[in-house]
Amino acid sequence: MASCVAVIGKENSPLYIACITPEQELGFHYSLHTSLDFIEEKLSSTNKGNDHRDLYLGLLYSTEHQRIFGYVTNTKIKFVIIVNVDATNTNLRDNETRQMFRKLHVAYTNVMSNPFYTPSTRINSNKFAAVANSILAKQS
After folding, report:
1. E strand map for the chain
2. Fewer CB in a 10 Å sphere around the end CB: N or C, the chain?
3. DSSP code of residue 87
């Protein structure tokens, strides 16, 4: 089900992108960049009077072929998961996507805890890649 997992930095630069099919990676990049507009829109509408916002943004937008979900940390790091829509997985539960984002957030926290990682650079961690691939493999 999950076709692409991405981590986007504070300055909207991609820190990590993993896709199931490399042939569709360019299309996923387009969807990821489009999702950034929706994330900024949701953040600006929730920040007007709320000091305590939910990290999980939910469904950002949907097309004929995919659904894009978002999650933003307190430090403005964005996680995006793209799910392909077909006849087999039309009913993806909200709890399932929240759980995928929690796993991704914990893995990202572990990367940030590494003293040899420079923040705002591409993530080249094997453990983080294993978590991202498990999200892709589990859902596919």
Report:
1. 2-8, 14-19, 56-62, 66-72, 78-84
2. C
3. T
Got the DSSP string for 102-120? HHHHHHHHHHHT-TTPPTT
Per-residue pLDDT of 52-76, as tens digits, reads: 567 899 899 998 888 999 999 999 9
Spatial contact of 35 and 68, defined as CB atoms under 8 Å apart: yes
Give the pLDDT confidence of 103-124 residue by residue, as tens digits. Answer: 999 999 999 999 999 998 999 9
- Helix, strand, or coil here: 6? strand
Q: What is the reported pLDDT for 140?
A: 47
Contact 93, 77 (CB under 8 A): no
Distance CA 132, CA 126 (A): 10
